[in-house]
Specification:
The chain is of the alpha/beta class and 278 residues long. It is built from 9 helices and 8 strands. The chain has 2 domains: 199 residues, Alpha-Beta Barrel (TIM Barrel), CATH 3.20.20; 57 residues, no CATH class.
Length: 278
């Protein structure tokens, strides 16, 4: 049984609409999956209306745990939970602030101005992120791809702290009936992966913030990294999760890929699924 517990739609920074995503998942043959858009559950509400089998509602919250910038996945959440709704509304305000800072930065640092149509589109997003701005820069011919655009034009922009407090995020996920899992703990897209010596102290911090699992299997991790992460999870009584971090055309990763070696991952290894009777 194939599973993928880290998927994004156009409700955040993926390229697929919910209907397109549901069809692609069906074609791919995934039996269990979680939609984990950044700081929004709008897509989960829409996906639930399609009543798909094997769907686990999720979210990926952008957090700060002490000095650790991280993403925390929430699995099996009640998307109508009032605490979660309040946190997401707070996130919209934080993201708007970050968007305005980046727009101003591009104007001052690069003499780049968005058109009125582009601004309307950006402000209409349910969860606007750096990828959205980068895609516009690519369309304007200023970079070959969105990763290059982000590195050249946006990484120098200081937006201040617009992240959720990690303790608050974990508490909200739990209050919504969900399981908080540390996403890509060795490093995410485009990041240098942590060494064992760098990772273990961070793990102790994240445990204090209340995480209950680790995303051990990830599309950018090789077999050795995944095995190391799984050992850490088992030694610390944490659940094991896995996901591709699929973003459609915005990232060159197909749904269902949980490592760099393209080797299928046995879903029985993902102990988080046992919490949902899979």
């Amino acid at each position: 049984m194939e599973a993928d517990l880290h998927i994004h739609s156009s409700c955040s920074d993926g390229s697929d609409s919910i209907k397109e995503l549901a069809e692609k998942i069906k074609q791919t043959g995934l039996k269990i999956y979680s939609l984990t858009d950044h700081d929004t559950v709008a897509g989960c509400k829409e996906m639930a209306e399609l009543n798909p089998a094997g769907f686990i509602p999720g979210v990926e919250l952008t957090c700060l745990c002490g000095e650790i910038k991280c993403h925390i996945l929430g699995y099996g959440i009640d998307v109508t939970n009032q605490n979660l709704t309040k946190l997401i509304e707070k996130g919209k305000t934080l993201r708007k602030k970050k968007l305005e800072t980046r727009i101003e930065y591009l104007k001052k640092a690069w003499n780049f101005e968005f058109t009125e149509d582009e601004l309307v589109w950006l402000y209409s997003r349910k969860s606007v992120v750096k990828t959205h701005l980068a895609n516009i820069l690519v369309k304007r011919g200023l970079a070959d791809n969105n990763l290059d655009a982000m590195k050249k034009y946006l990484d120098g922009c200081k937006t201040g702290n617009t992240r959720f407090n990690g303790e608050e995020a974990v508490e909200v996920i739990k209050s919504a009936g969900g399981i908080p899992v540390w996403a890509h703990p060795l490093g995410g897209e485009g990041e240098i992966h942590l060494t064992r010596e760098e990772f273990l102290p961070r793990l102790e911090t994240m445990k204090k913030f209340g995480i209950e699992g680790l995303e051990c299997y990830y599309s950018r991790y090789n077999t050795a990294e995944a095995e190391f992460m799984a050992r850490c999870a088992e030694e610390n009584s944490l659940l094991i999760s896995g996901g591709s971090d699929y973003h459609g055309q915005n990232k060159n990763i197909p749904p269902g890929r949980l490592n760099t070696d393209s080797i299928p991952v046995d879903s029985s290894l993902l102990t988080v699924l046992r919490q949902f009777n899979y």
